[in-house]
Structures are given as structure tokens and as C-alpha cells.
Amino acid sequence: MEIVSLGQRLISTIIDKIMIAIFFVIIAFIFCAGAPGAELGHFVSQLGIEYKKIESEKTIHERNIEVNEWLKENGFSHRMSDDQDYEHYKTMKNVYDKHVWIFVVVNLIYYLFCELIFKASLGKKALKCRIRKVNGNDIDIRDVFTRTGILGALLLLAVALQITMNLNGYITSILFFAILDFTVFTKQHSLVDKYSDTIVSKLC
């Protein structure tokens, strides 16, 4: 049983993140009633904003200054006031939170079903890798749910850190992947591998 190289792990991770992003957009469109494209756009635009500022009056005021400058530069006479715009943006935090939870659920379902069906994520399968127990045996349903539970706990930790430390979405994502995968660079296994007593090996 041969352990996969660091390069293979990184490439498989990139493939998985691309697949998760695709599934996330699809599910977001399905579950966002009314204007899913606009809601997804709002979510993306808020990723760089500190969590506690997403729906603040100051943030809305600053946004209106930018919008009004754009309207003026492009010859529009209409101007947005903070009071007018507040009704439109007051649900932005709810939109952000909803998409965060969609992202969490998509991650869990993706890895759960892939590992139940293929004994590996799509990225690992594409590189002919397989998840096994540390003794070399194939993983069973208990191992899969253990791995998914650990991943879920780490995702919830990331969400909690964002709220308590007032982080933006980009910093939270970097922090999450740093926590999850930093041991891959030193010991070639993630925290999910370590605490579920599993390894990623080449498919024999």
C-alpha cells in the first residue's frame, strides 16, 4: 500500500474544490427563491466584508456613496438615499448566512456520497487514489460517517471563528483550509484522516 504524494493530494484537492464550487452554485440557484443570481452576487460581494459590517448602517452608507458616484459618472439623475437603500439591503446578512450554510451542507453531502460510493472523493478518484483504514482495509460506512462528522465539526469551527473574531469570508476560508490541511504538508494526511484513522493511498 503506497501513500499518495503531496502533489497528488494538492491536485485532488483542487479538483474537489472546483466540483464543490459547481455544486454550490447549482444548489444556491435551486434554494434561492426569487432572484437566485442576485442573491449569489450579493453573497460573493460580501465575502470581503467583516462579518459584523455586512448589514451595518455604515456599510450601507459607504455602498450608497459608491453607487451614487457611479450614477453621476454615467449620467443618471437618480440618487439612492440610505433610507431607501436600507430596505433593500437589510436582508443581506440573512442572504450571506443562508449561502454559508448551503456551502457547509454541500461540502458534507459531496464528501459523504463520494466516499460511500467510490471510497474516495472525485478528485482522489481522478488521480487513482483511495481512502483506506490505516491497516490497509477498505473503509466502511462507519468510517465514512466518522470522516464526514469530523469535517462537519471543522466547518462549524470555521463559522464560529468568523462570527466571534469578526472575520471576512476570504480570511475564514483560508483559516479553515489551513486548519484542515496543514498536516498534509508535514505528515501527508489531513486532520480528517488523522482522527478517523484513515489514509489516502494509491489505487492498487
Primary descriptors:
single chain, mainly alpha, elongated, 204 residues
What is the element string, with H for helices and E for strands? HHHHHHEHHHHE
How much helix, percentage-wise, in residues?
55-70%
- Judging from the principal axes of the Cα atoms, what is the shape? elongated
Number of helices: 10
Number of DSSP E strands: 2
The unreliable regions are none
Mean pLDDT: 81
Could you tell me the radius of gyration in angstroms? Answer: 21 Å
- What is the strand content? under 5%
Task: Describe, in plain words, how this protein is organized in 3D.
This protein is mostly helical. It has helices spanning 6-31, 36-46, 57-73, 82-89, 92-118, 122-126, 141-165, 169-181, 184-187, 191-196; strands at residues 129-133, 198-202. It has a two-stranded antiparallel ribbon. Helix 2 packs across helix 5 (92-118) and helix 3 (57-73) crosses helix 4. The model has no long low-confidence stretch (mean pLDDT 81).
Write the SSE topology.
Blueprint: H1 6-31, H2 36-46, H3 57-73, H4 82-89, H5 92-118, H6 122-126, E1 129-133, H7 141-165, H8 169-181, H9 184-187, H10 191-196, E2 198-202
Antiparallel strand pairs: 1-2
Helix pairs in contact: 1-5, 2-5, 3-4, 5-7, 7-8
How is this structure best summarized?
The protein is mainly alpha-helical. It has 10 helices and 2 strands; from the N terminus they run H-H-H-H-H-H-E-H-H-H-H-E. It is elongated.
